[in-house]
Design a protein that fits this description.
heterodimer; A: 114 residues; mainly beta; seven-stranded mixed sheet; four-stranded antiparallel sheet; 0% helix; B: 113 residues; six-stranded mixed sheet; 12 strands
């Protein structure tokens, strides 16, 4: 199975600042996904990131707030911009585990905005 | 549209008790079904999966059977341990070329010694 290294694991940020989260996959994957998990809730898909093209955002998420980069087939970043306390969540990246019919997830970034 | 309904928690059990976490789904095609587990402070880990009707997924003593007739994928374990305390997510992958997952709301399990 693919392994995803995600960092930082947690951060406490001031409102109005930005945080970039990185995910590194140990194998090449066509698609990567970014999720948000608000406190006590399930996962919500933010966007799908394909290498070489613009990310596709789900309803309620916009590129200006959550810019995504996908420079190659093993790496992606998500930036949470102009943060407010409502952005306090766990952010997870994911990629299809194509040999296993499942998904591999990063360990998550726990973001607290104060 | 496709959806996953999962029993609400929290579920609190004593060690060695039997566990069932209910999950039902709605899908128009032939989805694959998954259970993921999230231990405190960690990301999600695939626990088990089933890709077609009547398949049984199993791992670490957990089992779930893909029941098309009842559109269910209930998670079971015969004897839980304190270390099983976590949040469990049922998920559906619609297939048909899409990689998007649909997650249930998660069920928190707490096992007491």
């Amino acid at each position: 199975s693919a392994v995803i290294s995600q960092k930082p694991s947690r951060d406490i940020c001031q409102r109005g600042t930005s945080l970039t989260i990185q995910c590194q996959v140990d194998s090449q994957v066509t698609m990567m996904f970014w999720y948000r998990q608000q406190p006590g809730q399930s996962l919500t898909l933010i966007a799908t990131a394909n290498q070489g093209s613009e990310a596709t955002y789900e309803s309620g998420f916009v590129i200006d707030k959550f810019p995504i980069s996908r420079p190659n087939l093993t790496f992606s970043t998500l930036t949470v911009s102009n943060m407010s306390p409502e952005d306090s969540s766990i952010y997870l990246c994911s990629a299809p585990d194509e040999g296993n019919y499942g998904y591999t997830f990063g360990s998550g970034t726990r973001l607290t905005v104060v | 549209g496709d959806s996953v309904t999962q029993m609400e928690g929290p579920v609190t059990l004593s060690e060695e008790a039997f566990l069932t976490i209910n999950c039902t789904y709605t899908a128009t095609g032939y989805p694959s079904l998954f259970w993921y587990v999230q231990y405190p402070g960690e990301g999600l880990q695939l626990l088990l999966k089933a890709t077609k009707a009547d398949d049984k997924g199993s791992n670490k003593g957990f089992e779930a059977t893909y029941r098309k007739e009842t559109t269910s994928f209930h998670l079971e374990k015969g004897s839980v341990q304190v270390s099983d305390s976590a949040v469990y997510f049922c998920a559906l992958s619609p297939g048909s070329g899409t990689y998007k997952y649909i997650f249930g709301t998660g069920t928190r399990l707490k096992v007491l010694a």
